[in-house]
């Protein structure tokens, strides 16, 4: 970490790790240490890590002094960080080390426990030295011997001389652990417990036999207790999931999870955790043994219960402790990531039954490890030291993916019948589009979307999950997104996805802004490919080169001109829609470098969504537009809107479109259901919900409804529709009310607009069919791509703005400018964005992602400010007063229209 390398107080200091060669606890993995450019940097980094660890332990454990007055110590009554989680405490530890804050003198948890008098009588001098080296506190600076083989002789290390070294090691049960703890407490010696933990967790065979469930209740028909076709629901008092996937008849669990948790809880209550060193060593050795078994012995096919090892180990509540983050936890993640997809799918199904509380704890532990690894090398990630090459980060991400699918499985999923119906519908639509095509031609067959292997094995798609157990946002790691090299990662994904790690298949960990950058690279490459193809065709067939998608329009006939231009392109060669867009306004000199396209989209959207045209209806309650099922416009108009939506995403333009979320779900292949109705018509949904919740006997008298519905078109004319044949003679009752609601929603969201939406979707897919849109984004994120963010944070814009031409952040004119901007009402702020960037929408990631430049445009003048919307440049004369600047700026943003050459 660069801030520590420049610290004079740390220069020249050597950690004990450098002096003795022992493995010391630190946040940085051994792989990263190996990449240090110089020995001195390694020593300084090690010293900095040790200092950070001391602050972290002080924040998490305290110094043990009840009268401590250090506000950065957990033992103090004035402790400032009581509500912080471990991730925030880790960040705070780094800040305290930078500020050289005071450390408490008394830190008993960092002092290795010496043998008691009774132990001294039994322990030889050689064994005593080994005992002293064992860590006993959560924050202890441990010296764990790195095992050189897959087994460790814990008898020789941990047992005193003269004891029975042939003590029989047995597998664990909850009762045995409780008995061991009681025995050790009564004898005031924890050696037996330490020995047993080291032996059991060092041996895959003993760990598989541990915590086995009582299978007497599983002796069902045939008496086959080892069948993989039987299922057992995991006993979990914390489970809050309404959909338990362990009832899927394809997972048989022999581990008593409840017993495992209770046993680990008793171990966690043991003072100072004297078994910690043995457990860390054992887990490290265990992971090496398991790795060899998986690679060379095909152990999972020969021993199905081998999965018990991963179930038990992931239940250890101390995995997120700093000591485990150095070696033990990363190694466990490594072997879990090596598991075949079928075994990972079994783990996902098992973990999906754990419930929200336990699943969140597992996710947070992995996120903490990733965060610590990322922050530990903050400022050093570059083309040489990359996130995708750090094994600790990549392995934790692989395990996080299993938990991600477990969260989906344990959440609220669409019914199997609905998913199958949507699949058939999408197949039929594909056949029909190939037959009918767009504008009367057949589009070329597009390559299938690459499916995630784990999702395919589980038969689960993200789009089919209405509400996961853990919100999607909790899987995103912000520090990782701040440091990721998206260009390198995208290259790995495109060129060698089998050998090089890429975060693209693990898009759940990425922010929408990062994924948008990935797609931006992909779209630009496709644009270059189309441009290259156009030049080759020019050389072969002759004619003028046509490397761009050129659209020439008149402002007063923008709809007609755009429709004719795009229709001709689609009829001639639909792949030309994937070229870079180049818009020209007739009679104007503006050269389109992005800004002209932005205004083109804004103007055409305003025209198409004009209520006078009648293509869409506007709901005053939801503030959303919906397709008019009785529109007089032909399919070409709706196809045009679909093309425009696709072009906006493809060319990174933001539109002022107010569609309900169900539109984006339908574009992803879903059908509209009752749960989607709120954004379309909240009043109607409230009425239908009241009907479903009504349980009294006078239902028919209260609602007096039949299977015929009535509605009005945009011109006020009344229409009726029978949800069933002879629907006017079928009353809605308590028994069939759910059927009525489903049919009503299906008609309103699907059947009534089928023709219009099919044309709209066809236009959208003409542009985006080869894009990684479905692979990377959820419907909520697609809406963000189209409409932009809703937060107008101009303070973030101020921090991200650059200055040119003689202006600086502290220039008087600049200070006056931001004072005027922050005093503006929201409408004027949007106009300023429109004037400067060509759109009043906020880009994905917020205004901090908008790189605006304010350039000095000469001395004081009566001229108005001008802008280059293609490059987000505001040209501002050096107005001497706030009043003049406010007057000139407001006039510019309120009366600007058109493009001219300066």
How would you describe this structure to a colleague?
- The chain has 902 residues and is mostly helical.
- Helices cover 49% and strands 5% of the residues.
- It has a four-stranded mixed β-sheet, covered by helices on one side. Strands 1-2 form a two-stranded antiparallel ribbon. A two-stranded parallel ribbon has the order 3-4.
- Helix 4 crosses helix 5 (86-99) and helix 29 (661-667) crosses helix 35.
- The chain is globular and about 95 Å long.
- The two termini are 48 Å apart.
- 38% of the residues are buried.
- InterPro entries: AZUL, AZUL_sf, E3A/B/C-like, HECT_dom, Hect_E3_ubiquitin_ligase.
- Residues 1-12, 20-29 have a biased composition (Polar residues).
- It holds the Pfam family AZUL.
- Residues 1-41, 107-147 are annotated as: Disordered.
- The active site is at 870 (glycyl thioester intermediate).
Q: Report on the biggest sheet.
A: 4 strands, mixed
Beta strands, count: 12
Low-confidence stretches: 1-39, 106-168, 216-249, 437-443
Strand-residue fraction?
5-15%
Determine the number of helices (DSSP H or I, runs of at least 4 residues): 39
Tell me the overall shape. Answer: globular
Major β-sheet strand ordering: 9-10-12-11
- What radius of gyration results from the CA coordinates? 33 Å
Which oligomeric state applies? Answer: single chain
- The end-to-end span amounts to 48 Å
The pLDDT mean sits at: 78
Which helices and strands appear, and what pairs or packs with what?
Elements: H1 2-5, H2 16-20, H3 30-34, H4 39-60, H5 86-99, H6 117-122, H7 125-132, H8 154-158, H9 174-187, H10 191-202, H11 204-209, H12 257-268, H13 276-296, H14 299-302, H15 308-313, H16 322-326, H17 328-338, H18 341-352, H19 356-376, H20 391-410, E1 412-413, H21 416-436, H22 453-458, E2 465-467, H23 478-483, H24 486-495, H25 512-541, E3 549-553, H26 558-572, E4 581-585, H27 595-608, E5 616-619, E6 624-627, H28 635-650, H29 661-667, H30 682-693, H31 699-703, E7 708-712, E8 718-722, H32 737-751, H33 754-768, H34 773-776, H35 779-787, H36 794-800, E9 802-804, H37 812-823, H38 826-837, E10 853-856, E11 866-868, E12 873-876, H39 882-894
Parallel strand pairs: 3-4, 9-10, 10-12
Antiparallel strand pairs: 1-2, 5-6, 7-8, 11-12
Helix pairs in contact: 4-5, 5-19, 9-12, 10-13, 13-17, 17-20, 18-20, 19-20, 26-28, 28-33, 29-35, 38-39
GO cellular component, one term: proteasome complex
Region (Disordered): 1-41, 107-147
Catalytic activity: S-ubiquitinyl-[E2 ubiquitin-conjugating enzyme]-L-cysteine + [acceptor protein]-L-lysine = [E2 ubiquitin-conjugating enzyme]-L-cysteine + N(6)-ubiquitinyl-[acceptor protein]-L-lysine
């Amino acid at each position: 970490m660069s801030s520590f390398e420049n610290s004079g107080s740390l220069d020249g200091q050597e950690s004990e790790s450098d002096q003795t060669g022992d493995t010391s606890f630190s946040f940085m993995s051994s792989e990263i240490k190996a990449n240090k450019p110089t020995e001195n940097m390694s020593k300084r980094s090690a010293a900095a890590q040790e200092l950070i660890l001391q602050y972290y332990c002080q924040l998490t454990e305290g110094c043990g002094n009840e009268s401590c007055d250090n506000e950065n110590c957990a033992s103090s009554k004035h402790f400032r960080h009581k509500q912080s989680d471990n991730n925030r405490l880790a960040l705070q530890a780094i800040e305290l080390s930078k500020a050289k804050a005071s450390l408490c003198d008394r830190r008993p948890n960092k002092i290795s426990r010496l043998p008691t008098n009774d132990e001294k009588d039994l322990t030889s001098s050689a064994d005593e030295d080994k005992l002293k080296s064992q860590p006993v506190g959560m924050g202890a600076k441990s010296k764990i011997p790195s095992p050189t083989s897959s087994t460790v002789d814990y008898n020789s290390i941990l047992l005193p001389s003269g004891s029975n070294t042939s003590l029989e090691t047995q597998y664990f049960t909850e009762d045995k652990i409780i008995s061991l703890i009681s025995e050790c407490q009564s004898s005031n010696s924890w050696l037996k417990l330490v020995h047993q933990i080291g032996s059991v967790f060092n041996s895959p065979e003993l760990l598989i036999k541990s915590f086995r469930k009582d299978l007497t209740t599983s002796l069902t028909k045939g008496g086959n207790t080892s069948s993989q076709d039987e299922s057992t629901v995991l006993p979990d008092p914390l489970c809050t999931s309404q959909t338990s996937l362990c009832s899927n008849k394809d997972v048989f669990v022999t581990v008593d999870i409840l017993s495992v948790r209770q046993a680990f809880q008793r171990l966690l209550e043991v003072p100072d955790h004297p078994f910690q060193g043995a457990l860390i060593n054992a887990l490290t050795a265990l992971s090496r043994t398991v790795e060899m078994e998986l690679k060379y012995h095909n152990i999972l096919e020969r021993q199905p219960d081998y999965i018990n090892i991963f179930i038990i180990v992931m239940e250890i509540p101390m995995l997120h402790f700093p000591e485990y983050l150095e070696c033990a936890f990363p190694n466990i993640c490594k072997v879990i990531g090596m598991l075949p997809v079928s075994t990972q799918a079994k783990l996902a199904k098992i973990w999906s039954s754990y419930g929200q509380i336990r699943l969140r704890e597992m996710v947070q532990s992995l996120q903490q490890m990733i965060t610590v690894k990322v922050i530990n090398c903050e400022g050093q990630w570059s083309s040489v030291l990359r996130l995708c090459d750090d094994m600790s980060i990549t392995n934790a991400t692989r395990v996080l993916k299993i938990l991600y699918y477990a969260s989906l499985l344990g959440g609220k999923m669409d019914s199997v019948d609905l998913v199958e119906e949507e699949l058939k519908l999408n197949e039929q639509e594909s056949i029909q589009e190939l037959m009918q095509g767009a504008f009367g031609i057949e589009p070329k067959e597009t390559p299938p979307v690459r499916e995630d292997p784990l999702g395919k094995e589980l038969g689960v798609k993200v789009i089919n999950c209405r509400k996961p157990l853990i919100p999607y946002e909790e899987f995103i790691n912000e520090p990782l997104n701040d440091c990721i090299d998206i260009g390198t990662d995208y290259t790995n994904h495109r060129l060698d996805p089998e050998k090089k790690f890429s975060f693209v298949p693990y898009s759940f960990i990425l922010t929408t802004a990062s994924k948008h950058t990935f797609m931006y690279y992909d779209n630009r490459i496709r644009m270059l490919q189309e441009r290259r193809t156009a030049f080759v065709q020019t050389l072969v067939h002759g004619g003028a080169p046509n490397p761009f998608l050129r659209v020439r329009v008149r402002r007063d006939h923008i709809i007609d001109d755009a429709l004719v231009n795009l229709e001709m392109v689609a009829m001639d060669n639909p792949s030309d829609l994937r070229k870079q867009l180049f818009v020209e306004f007739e009679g104007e000199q503006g050269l389109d470098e992005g800004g002209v396209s932005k205004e083109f989209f804004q103007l055409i959207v305003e025209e198409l969504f004009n209520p006078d045209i009648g293509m869409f209806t506007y709901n005053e309650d939801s503030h959303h537009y919906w397709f008019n099922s009785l529109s007089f416009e032909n399919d070409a108009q709706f196809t045009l809107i679909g093309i425009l939506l696709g072009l906006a995403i493809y060319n990174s333009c933001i539109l002022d479109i107010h569609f309900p979320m169900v539109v984006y779900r339908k574009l992803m292949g879903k059908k509209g259901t009752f749960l989607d109705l709120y954004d379309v018509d909240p009043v109607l949904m409230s009425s239908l919900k009241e009907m479903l919740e009504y349980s009294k006997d006078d239902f028919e008298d209260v609602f007096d409804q039949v299977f015929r519905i009535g509605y009005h078109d945009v011109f006020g004319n009344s229409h009726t529709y029978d949800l069933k044949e002879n629907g006017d003679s079928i009353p809605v009752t308590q028994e069939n009310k759910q059927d009525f609601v489903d049919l009503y929603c299906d008609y309103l969201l699907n059947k009534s607009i089928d023709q219009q939406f099919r044309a709209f979707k066809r236009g959208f897919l003409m542009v985006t069919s080869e894009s990684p849109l479905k692979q990377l984004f959820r419907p909520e994120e697609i809406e963000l791509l189209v409409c932009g963010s809703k937060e107008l944070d101009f303070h973030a814009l101020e921090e991200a703005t650059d200055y040119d031409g003689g202006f600086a952040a502290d220039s008087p004119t600049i200070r006056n400018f931001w004072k005027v901007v922050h005093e503006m009402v929201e409408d004027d702020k949007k106009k300023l964005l429109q004037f400067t960037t060509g759109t009043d929408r906020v880009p994905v990631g917020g205004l901090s992602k908008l790189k605006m430049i304010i350039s000095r445009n000469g001395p004081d003048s009566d001229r108005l400010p001008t802008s280059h919307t293609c490059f987000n440049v505001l040209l501002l004369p050096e107005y001497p007063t706030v009043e003049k600047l406010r007057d000139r700026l407001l006039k510019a943003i309120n009366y600007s229209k058109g493009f001219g050459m300066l």
